Amino acid sequence: MIQHSEDKKLNLFRSLFKGREDVFARRWEKGNKRGYMPAYDYDPYMYRLHAMKGGTFKNYEDKRYLPLTDQQLQKHLNGEQFIGIYPLLPDNTSWFIAADFDKVNWVEECRTLINVCTENEIPAYLERSRSGEGGHVWIFFDKPYPAIRSRKILKTLLEQVRIFSVFEKGSSFDRLFPNQDFHSGKELGNLIALPLHKPTLEEGNSCFVDEQLKPFQNQWKFLSSIQANIHS
After folding, report:
1. SS3 content of the chain, % helix, strand, coil (to 5)
2. Which residues is 26 bridged to in the sheet?
3. Within this chain, do residues 98 and 25 fall inside the same structural domain, yes or no?
4. Is position 203 within any domain?
5. What is the pLDDT of residues 17-61, one digit of tens each?
6. What is the residue-wise DSSP string for 89-122?
């Protein structure tokens, strides 16, 4: 059983990092290869029979997505698995938008983006990524907001401070989450890794940091102070 204090933490975490609840992804590593793939529920025995006949997991039809439950999130926070969520909801809205930076100038450019967001009265927050060599600037909404609008706003701000341009190749800016205005009808859209994975957090990564890049001592207290952007 999750203790009451843990239950409060889980509710707070879930209130901020909202994506699709019918599916989530797990990080995997095999040799030098790594990535994420959707988590599925399936019968291993039946799948082995399928594979013995030359089938692959991709064309194995008797599988379904695992939903993102409290138990799955708790496993992420405990370090039993590393989860990624899909921010673009079926109606092409999202509860947040985040910008990913992962090259040499990521610190400076994250700060620049946060400053211009502050100037425009948009609360924005910096998370150092899992690798420790990049960052995510998060902007949260009080309710799902059309991705086409949030992406346009953020791209405008990035262009305003000359971080993003079709002609600029030296920027540390990589992509937005979500990275699509609309669903293609075939895919889930891009995913973003959730923060506060215990082993990574203990290394000073996958956590929110201040202007000096120091992790907030109490991540949960910090999360409770986050302000969502209100829209009508």
Report:
1. 30, 25, 45
2. 37, 83
3. no
4. yes
5. 999 999 999 999 988 899 999 999 999 889 899 999 999 988 898
6. -TTSEEEEEEEEE-STTHHHHHHHHHHHHHHTT-
Instruction: Spell 109-146 as b/e; 16+ CB within 10 A means b.
Output: bbebbbebbeeeeebbbbbbbbeeebbbbbbbbeebbe
Query: Do 109 and 199 fall into the same domain?
Result: yes
Domain that holds residue 25: 21-68
Same domain, 97 and 57: no
Residue 112 lies in a domain: yes
Q: Which of 140, 136, 142, 141 is nearest to 207 (CA)?
A: 136
- Residues 98 and 179 placed together within one structural domain of the fold: yes
Are the C-beta atoms of residues 28 and 37 closer than 8 Å to each other?
yes
- Any idea what the CATH number is for the domain that residue 199 is in? 3.30.70
Return the DSSP state at 212.
T
DSSP readout, 164-176? --TT--S--EEEE
Please confirm whether the linkage preceding 178 is cis (ω < 30° from 0): yes
Specify the number of domains making up the chain: 2
- Asked if 195 contacts 207 with a C-beta cutoff of 8 angstroms, the reply is yes
CB distance 222 to 216 below 8 Å? yes
Q: Are residues 190 and 103 in the same domain?
A: yes
Q: What is the pLDDT of residues 53-92, one digit of tens each?
A: 999 988 898 999 999 999 999 999 999 999 999 999 999 9
Instruction: For residue 181, tell me if it sits in a domain.
Output: yes
Note whether residue 63 is domain-resident: yes
Cα 31 to Cα 16: distance, rounded to the nearest angstrom: 34
Q: Which residue do the tokens 């995913």 mark? A: 191
